[in-house]
């Protein structure tokens, strides 16, 4: 029992430091220096450009990342997808909402419950098998659920929530 104490202490300290880092990032996020890939609009506490949060690739990659190895209804075979956890994005933006509206570059929109982000570790996929996802291949970002890990997600509702070519997130 006593041998586990140092491991628990290190784990607790690591989790605390992660939460402090995320909170510090949210409080002091500067405007982006590179091309804006994502805009978060609406009811958020931590904007960085006017009343919006604008993020470039470097800023998105600095958020807590997730990795999902899965097949999808739109790609061939199993891929290793990487990108920021959507729950981390909302935390940095200072969002307290039950759902968000995710909009594609072509104006397609889907309302997505924030609970999905926590329950399934949904990511904003930016890489597949180590390479950036091109616009012609669902990129530069798309909402990705862990389909192989949770086969119950292979339904029409979740497919509609899996927005491709993401350009913005709106918080009502």
Automatic annotation (TrEMBL):
Residues 1-26 form the signal peptide. Residues 72-137 form the Oxidoreductase molybdopterin-binding domain. It comes from the Bacteria. InterPro entries: OxRdtase_Mopterin-bd_dom, OxRdtase_Mopterin-bd_sf. The keyword Signal applies. Keywords: Signal. The keyword Signal applies. SUPFAM superfamilies: Oxidoreductase molybdopterin-binding domain. It holds the Pfam family Oxidored_molyb. This is Molybdopterin-dependent oxidoreductase.
């Amino acid at each position: 029992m006593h041998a586990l104490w140092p491991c628990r202490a290190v784990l607790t300290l690591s989790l605390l430091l992660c939460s402090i880092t995320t909170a510090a990032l949210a409080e002091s996020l500067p405007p982006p220096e590179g091309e804006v890939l994502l805009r978060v609009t609406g009811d958020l506490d931590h904007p960085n450009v006017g009343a919006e949060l604008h993020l470039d690739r470097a800023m998105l990659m600095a958020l807590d990342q997730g990795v999902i190895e899965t097949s999808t209804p739109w790609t061939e075979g199993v891929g290793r997808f990487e990108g920021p956890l959507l729950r981390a994005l909302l935390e940095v933006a200072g969002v307290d909402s039950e759902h968000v509206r995710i909009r594609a570059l072509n104006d397609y929109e889907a309302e997505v419950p924030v609970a999905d982000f926590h329950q399934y570790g949904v990511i904003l996929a930016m890489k597949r098998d180590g390479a950036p996802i091109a616009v012609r291949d669902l990129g530069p970002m798309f909402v990705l659920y862990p389909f192989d890990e949770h086969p119950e997600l292979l339904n029409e509702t979740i497919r509609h929530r899996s927005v491709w070519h993401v350009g913005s997130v709106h918080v009502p």
